[in-house]
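Assemble and predict.
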Amino acid sequence: MLKIGVLGCGRIGRMHARNVAAHPATKLAGVYDINATAAAEVAGNLGVPAFASGDEAITSPSVDAVLIATSTETHADYIEKAVAAGKPILCEKPIDLSLERVDLCAERIRDTKIPIMLGFVRRFDAGHAATRAAIRDGAIGELHQVIVTSRDPGMAPAAYIEGSGGVFRDMTIHDFDMARFMLGEEPVEVFATGSRLVDPALMERTGDFDTVTVVMKTASGRQAIINNSRQAVYGYDQRVEALGSAGMAVSENRRPHGARLFAAEFTERAEPYLNFFIERYEQAFNDEIGEFAAAVAEGRAPSVGFEDGRVALALAEAAMKSVREGRIVKVSEIG
Amino acid sequence: MLKIGVLGCGRIGRMHARNVAAHPATKLAGVYDINATAAAEVAGNLGVPAFASGDEAITSPSVDAVLIATSTETHADYIEKAVAAGKPILCEKPIDLSLERVDLCAERIRDTKIPIMLGFVRRFDAGHAATRAAIRDGAIGELHQVIVTSRDPGMAPAAYIEGSGGVFRDMTIHDFDMARFMLGEEPVEVFATGSRLVDPALMERTGDFDTVTVVMKTASGRQAIINNSRQAVYGYDQRVEALGSAGMAVSENRRPHGARLFAAEFTERAEPYLNFFIERYEQAFNDEIGEFAAAVAEGRAPSVGFEDGRVALALAEAAMKSVREGRIVKVSEIG
Amino acid sequence: MLKIGVLGCGRIGRMHARNVAAHPATKLAGVYDINATAAAEVAGNLGVPAFASGDEAITSPSVDAVLIATSTETHADYIEKAVAAGKPILCEKPIDLSLERVDLCAERIRDTKIPIMLGFVRRFDAGHAATRAAIRDGAIGELHQVIVTSRDPGMAPAAYIEGSGGVFRDMTIHDFDMARFMLGEEPVEVFATGSRLVDPALMERTGDFDTVTVVMKTASGRQAIINNSRQAVYGYDQRVEALGSAGMAVSENRRPHGARLFAAEFTERAEPYLNFFIERYEQAFNDEIGEFAAAVAEGRAPSVGFEDGRVALALAEAAMKSVREGRIVKVSEIG
Amino acid sequence: MLKIGVLGCGRIGRMHARNVAAHPATKLAGVYDINATAAAEVAGNLGVPAFASGDEAITSPSVDAVLIATSTETHADYIEKAVAAGKPILCEKPIDLSLERVDLCAERIRDTKIPIMLGFVRRFDAGHAATRAAIRDGAIGELHQVIVTSRDPGMAPAAYIEGSGGVFRDMTIHDFDMARFMLGEEPVEVFATGSRLVDPALMERTGDFDTVTVVMKTASGRQAIINNSRQAVYGYDQRVEALGSAGMAVSENRRPHGARLFAAEFTERAEPYLNFFIERYEQAFNDEIGEFAAAVAEGRAPSVGFEDGRVALALAEAAMKSVREGRIVKVSEIG
């Protein structure tokens, strides 16, 4: 059993703490949050100690490994400290909003053998993973096109948007990773465009976009299309489609249950989709913990690592540049 | 080109006349109806002669074959006349409401080599036919259970119900044939039960049922379940399901088009199903004409014939007896 | 937190023990099994004590309530003992294979106010529950017909079949309850028929059936059709369909994930369904624990109780009598 | 009855001739093809005269209106001649491969009141039309994003590709129109990218692409994404999706029939989709004829006209320029 200390007791940190406590391969060693009350509450509910600081959580002998779910600007620091303490790391995305900071972090931990895993949880969704497997196993022949549809159920609070680093680094970053996961080759070109349609006033004020399209191409010509919206009122919309020379693999939305209604005016009516990521990716969050524990146990690199976090961030920067300049940006233009 | 004379210009006769006129393998030789105005109108629209009588239609040298779509009580007479005239026959179901009359007809035409086809149109539906093919080809292994769901979109007019011969001979008769088509063995036992739920007053008055369930078993133990309702407000509901030792084959409902709607309260909402048989079985009615023309051209028996009409009627009688007596009725008890 | 002692550490008891341990409203007080090694293993894994006997589990002051998941013949005894000890009960179905024993048990606990819940877990499936809610809320108007499709993924071991009490009391019993849950009225007539198609030799030897159809009717004429098979190779098949005067509500099968494959020979191909009840009804088993805890906390009767267990068993007996006699059996004929 | 002369007896011209002959509102006056043998064959099959020249077909007093389905380079000439002859026109897309020629044609027919309809048949597909209606009726609120998926079942013959004018003018042109149909606003910006993945050698030789993505934006920020492939081995893939502030409307693929297969290795497996446009858009081609006849009868402009043909071609040119220059192209840059 891998004893994990969870840093961060916000919405996602609390969920991770519960998952770590319940997973058969892990044990929750304790939790930390900058808000001591929040940490104490989570610790109390789960019957574990609350650490007084992030450093204590990382260095405590009761902690074998750390799960970093604090605010983004602290991720790189904690990664460096955990590496220094020799503790395996599962870090929520993104590593940092600044590619420079990410590169500095990479430089500082360059020679480490410590397993570092990035929380690109969607790779562990059984449907997305089966789609990836179909591609890898040749079930659809040579891959030609990937389409990632990813829409939040509703606009995040203004404060969240303001601190998010913009839609490409906050939201699309998951889809950049999903596209790479499916493509099996690195994108070399990025085109992006953004609109302000869901909450134009907020988007104007923050210089952000709520509706974006990204098109990427690999050296061999494989295409990936990402479409994002901050608002899909029918529920969290998460789909992946892969077209190949011998077929197509898709990962469809999940319905919350199997009921449908038929009436004089309609047929096959179903419920709205699950509201958001904690419900939609429940299975994936659990299997992410499992992969982390397995990688540590086997002394191997996790299936998704630090470099994946860096590349997704570079693609986000390329998309931002593409929007500014109205042209295709080569990924090689980004540091 | 097979020149066909169509007897009967009611709703289904008119449809047949149009189909015969448009089908590449057939030509409409003329039409007849007891109502001369109706016949004249159809004849005028399709540019063909109207015959003065059923006998004229049958014996006319311009007619190679006849399609009988008149009222039920005339079917057996016209079959006998067409056989006497040496004209191949496509007859709408049922042959007659009386099994005695059917048997008399069978006796009278006993030694004929004239192709006689019964209008069990659903056998020609591409989805149902593919399901039958899956069974025959072993795609689901040994067949164990067949479930036929068959519900009209709405209660027929009282006058229709009064003259229908009852739900089993009027409506379920199609499903008895569908069950036989799928089973590949003859049912030997029949159980049926009926309820008066859609229009209890009309059903009480006519001694009929609007909601029925039939369970049949073959000698080897294969089961068929039929469920009927005179009213499915969401549209004409026509499904078949076949469970076997190695899988399941189903024929689902068809949607009128591919549109779906998603909103804050629902997802995947589609249109009501097609309203009734002329729309739902359009492809099947056309392919039925094709099979009839092919059978005549090849001098062979059509894939569904007189005896199929007789057996379906016998099963209807068995069902009626089962309802009356509250017990399983052996088909051998019916004449 | 309701402290629950779990009696029985077989497949379903182990699952219940894990669920009770993880549920936010309950705590696992300890476990018991007639096989002390099995009990010790489960106890060790979950960090709780193993009780030395069922009596000790029931009477222990550390136990607020009991969950009975032992072999069927012990259920009634344990229910009586738990009632005597004043401990609320969640008991797996069936109460007993003998209606006489059930009635004796009912007599002995007649005046108790102790909450007793029967483990008809499917009522708690979100899809089935939404279908029931659609009926109750009038979304489909007056209910006319209910169809319950319930097929196991594969034949149980011979030893299980031999001790099962027969398909109606072992397997269909869930579907009798599901039909009652949907019907909103009591069935008054039962017709059943059985075949030996999946494993004829085993069925012959045990006098059992592996493929059965049951048709029931309420006093107002509502019909329920149940179809069961011991083997659906494509996965555990669990569907409910309710037809009403104003529409239809269905609860469809759940796919294990959202992936589909398309190729030159096919489209929309999905994975086999979840293999069996522990996976398929995972959500339902958890919500069943929640309902039990809530009922105890609120001092009210659980939503499904002892009498529901008795009625389902009486319907099973009626079905068995119907098969023997080839006729409709009135439920009033059964004690 | 509108008497229509059909010019062109290739695959699509033959289909149109059959449809015109069968449609209740039209009559086939005759056919013409540059290949007199082809014309004679079609004329013979349908029992109509073959015209000796396009001019004769257009000017014949037996012809009320013309349907132009000849090779693309003749379209503009025939349009001009039909306008001169005062005959309403239904012309297959595109008007011409050259925007200059289209503009010259527009100039020449500037003041005509003759109804001219462009054959953007997909607008008449019942599913696509219902999706458009959902947008127009406000069922999805304000429109934000349109996604058009359009993939041919297999690569066209090399000769066809060579004379096609390139994928954007030949294939995407339908999707440019579909996007405009859905958007309800004109695109002002176009980005496009192309790959050579299906048949790289042919694409290299012709300077064409077989896999393309187009992103367009309207002045208000609405986005349209088009993805095209020359090869979808699972069948002709034709889908439209529209996301709005209050919901989503989609038009899904149609299955050829309702059959599905389930086995130990899979569930819900269906047939490949219909192979190509004549089958997939059968209903739409018929309703297109109906709209043409109705517009002529009512003396109004058809719902899709010459200008729609011109705009779609301009968008194709913008896409070609975008691919060449790797940047967003404003539609105003294109003449």
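Chain D has a mean pLDDT of 97.
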